[in-house]
Amino acid sequence: MMTHKYSVTGMTCASCRDKVTDTLSQIAGITKVSVSLENKEAEVQMEYHVPTETLNKALAEKGNYHLEEQKGGHHSAAPSPTHSTETDEPITLKSYWPLILVFLYIIGGVAIGQVMNGFNWMSAMNIFMGLFFITFSFFKLLDLQGFAMSYLSYDIVAQRWIGYGYLYPFIELALGIAYLTHFDPIITNSVTLVVMSVSTIGVLRSVLRKSKFKCACLGTVFNLPMSTVTLVEDGLMVAMAATMLITLL
Questions:
Q1: Under a CB-based contact definition with an 8 Å cutoff, are residues 60 and 160 in contact?
Q2: What's the predicted TM-score (pTM) here?
Q3: Is 233 exposed, middle or buried (0-12, 13-18, 19+ CB in 10 A)?
Q4: Are residues 119 and 200 in the same domain?
Q5: Are strands 66-76 and 41-46 parallel, antiparallel or unpaired?
Q6: At a CB cut-off of 8 Å and minimum separation 6, what does 111 contact?
Q7: What is the pLDDT of residues 36-46, one digit of tens each?
Q8: What's the CATH number where 19 sits?
Q9: Contact 152, 197 (CB under 8 A)
């Protein structure tokens, strides 16, 4: 667990203080927020490091508020027995069990479809990608705001426009439906290639920087660490979309 202290500008009344407090409290990874209107300060307790840029982008959506971390205003505390921080938890097979289980269900769905209709690589990839996007969008939509705030911490588009984090699950849902209904394969695979390539860049950057971010692929329902597993997942979707697109062209 860690605590950061910030100077806050833009607050003029109790309503501003409450708005800053509520906005920061809803960001993934933040467990406690204390804001002083009199001192123009905020003390934020986090499960893992959330960049100041992420906090400021969330606040910018609510008003002309800005945080600047105070020098010497950060300290780490030992985690409580019931709350291990993401940086202290070893990454094991158990860490990714929810993701593995989702993939097994999707593969099972593909296998059933192929047994019923006869095996075909293109058909199998269509079903896989359709189920993948619909399933993953479902988990993100369970907590849309939480996902958007978490996605903001590493996605290169969401960091420039926070609205993309809110739009992304619906893009996945639309792609899933498109794959399962065989909507214009060239358009569907082209959009997938662009969307997943951009997502892969953000994940790759975080992995190379060894950033301690929570992976938002399954929304906020599961606490999945960002690692090369996430990179492989995104890379697989890029490769499948590219393969299908090349085959179609």
A1: no
A2: 0.66
A3: buried
A4: yes
A5: unpaired
A6: none
A7: 999 999 999 98
A8: 3.30.70.100
A9: no
